[in-house]
Amino acid sequence: xxTMAETKAPAARPLSPHLQIYKPMLTMMMSIVHRVTGAxxxxxxxxxxxxxxxxxxxxxxxxxxxxxxxxxxGRLILLGYTWALIHxxxxxxxxxxxxxxxxxxxxxxxxxxxxxxxxSIALTVLLWIVGLLAMGGPR
Amino acid sequence: xxxxxxRHIRTPLARVRGHGAAHTGTGHFWRxxxxxxxxxxxxxxxxxxxVMLLGRNQAAVAQILGTPLVAIVMLLFxxxxxxxxxxxxxxxxxxxxxxxxxxxxxxxxxxFFCIAVALASAYGIFKLSFGx
Lengths: 139, 132
Description:
The structure holds 2 protein chains of 2 kinds. Chain A is mainly α.
């Protein structure tokens, strides 16, 4: 065993190709973004839990949450949370359609990926316009 | 039958059970899809509720969140998303963490996190519903 290990140095064989070897394509980016948004939403649930507990705790606790959600950082995080939620949901619908065996062709999957991205951005903007109007305009 | 038992390494019983190498069969896959489907209407409903509550003070938010329909929808939403995210994060951990100890610790931590988020959120809703 020893002689074999000594005589045969590990050959510099090519490793199996990983992400960096491929040209970034839309479908591939959407796949990565689906996972990243899922992970972001995972930790984003802390904000949801905080909001619910703050509402249950009383005016002082809720004021602390409102100070966060009304701040610039808070708004940016919530904007990202909104987009991640919508993007992951649309991506999930895409996956559920794929589960039926549809939408896997070369043209359809590109259209799906584009629709996922455009749809998530458009719906996020729309939802925030509605939200800001519901709050009585931007503050 | 005799020929197939020669050609397959797995026993006929294992094949009939269909639980595969992880012994859980399609359980993970199915719960992932089930909660994914449930998440769609529940997320839409939760977003509508949240938009309705934007800019209101604590008393109004507490009162609306405590009404039966809103509370039940929010509870369903929380249960569905936390089950879904536990399954999803488990796959991420299994994909990227290869050390056996680290993987086990993270998979346990994943469960603890998801259950804690679910129960903390549910506690908030129950408190608003029952006024405890």
